[in-house]
Design brief:
By secondary structure, the chain is an alpha+beta fold. Helices cover 36% and strands 41% of the residues. Helix 1 runs antiparallel to helix 7. InterPro entries: Haemolymph_juvenile_hormone-bd (IPR010562), To_sf (IPR038606).
Length: 260
C-alpha cells in the first residue's frame, strides 16, 4: 500500500472519476486481471488464508436430476451424492473484458477436461431395441467432461466499504462426456453408452439449476475473499498494475485525485 497510508477516505465522486479514467485503459487493465487470475491457480488446490478451503476438488453434497426428454431414455432419474469435481485448477484464460464504469466483467475460461466422481442412485427406463427396460443402480460413478468452455458475467459492488460479488451468471458448452456408472449388472455398458450421449443435453437443461448452485455455494465462498478488500485496497492494486511508462500519467492522475 505504498503512497496510500495517509489516505483515510475515498468518496463516491472520486471513485467514479477514477473509474472513468481507467475505462480509457481497459486493455492494460484486462491484461492485469488475466495475470491476477493466473496468480490464483495454486490457491485452488491449497485454499486461501485465513480459512478459505480449496476449490479443487470442489465438493457437491448432493445433486438431483430427472427428465423424460432424453434421447434413448423414456425416463431418467438420478441422485448424485458426495461428489467431487476435479481439474478446476487447470483452467485456461481465454478472454477477460473488464468494464470499470459498471464494475462488471466478462470472463471466458476453458478446460481441456473436468472429472467428477462420487456415488449415484439411478432409476431409468431405456430402450433395448423397441422394448423399454427399467433399471436401477446404486454404486460409484465417474464422469469426464471434455473441452469445457465457460463464459461468466460477473457484477461487483461494495458492501459496507468492502468489495462484494453481486452476480455471477454462467453460460457453457461441453464437447463430450464420458460416463462410467457402476451398478447395473449386464446392462451397465448399454447404460453408459446412452448416458455419455445424453449428458451434454442434461447439462444444457440444468443451466438454471447450476447457476442457482453457483449463487448459493460459489459466490459466498468467493465473497469470503473479496470482503477483505476495501475500496482503497482495490484502487491501490489497480494503481500498482499500471506500471508501464506509457501509463505514468494515469497513475499520477489517480494518485492526485486520491490525495486531494
Amino acid at each position: 500500500m505504498e503512497n496510500f497510508e495517509t489516505i483515510e477516505a475515498l468518496d463516491t465522486s472520486s471513485t467514479n472519476v477514477i473509474m472513468n479514467i481507467i475505462e480509457r485503459f481497459r486493455d492494460a487493465l484486462n491484461d492485469a486481471v488475466v495475470q491476477a487470475i493466473e496468480n490464483q491457480r495454486d490457491n485452488f488446490a491449497t485454499g486461501w488464508p485465513p480459512r478459505i478451503p480449496p476449490l479443487d476438488p470442489f465438493y457437491i453434497e448432493e445433486y438431483f436430476f430427472e427428465s423424460t426428454e432424453l434421447e434413448g431414455f423414456a425416463s431418467f432419474e438420478i441422485m448424485l451424492n458426495d461428489s467431487y469435481v476435479r481439474g478446476l485448477q487447470q483452467y485456461k484464460v481465454e478472454k477477460v473484458d473488464i468494464r470499470p464504469l459498471t464494475m462488471s466483467a466478462l470472463i471466458q475460461l476453458s478446460f481441456e477436461k473436468l472429472e467428477m466422481e462420487g456415488i449415484h442412485s439411478t432409476r431409468a427406463t431405456m430402450f433395448q431395441g423397441i422394448f423399454p427396460v427399467t433399471i436401477t443402480g446404486n454404486d460409484v460413478y465417474n464422469m469426464t467432461f471434455n473441452n469445457v468452455y465457460i463464459s461468466a458475467f460477473v457484477k461487483f459492488g461494495f458492501n459496507n466499504g468492502s468489495l462484494n460479488m453481486q452476480m455471477f451468471v454462467v453460460d457453457f458448452s461441453v464437447g463430450s462426456v464420458i460416463t462410467n456408472f457402476s451398478g447395473f449388472g449386464m446392462l451397465t455398458g448399454l447404460f453408459n453408452t446412452l448416458a455419455s450421449a445424453s449428458f451434454p443435453a442434461i447439462l444444457l437443461l440444468q443451466k438454471v439449476e447450476l447457476n442457482l448452485r453457483i449463487y448459493e455455494e460459489f459466490i459466498p465462498a468467493v465473497n469470503e475473499i473479496l470482503n477483505q478488500i476495501t475500496i482503497l485496497d482495490l484502487i491501490a492494486v489497480i494503481y500498482d498494475f499500471l506500471k508501464d511508462e506509457g501509463l505514468r500519467r494515469i497513475r499520477d492522475a489517480i494518485f492526485g485525485l486520491m490525495c486531494n
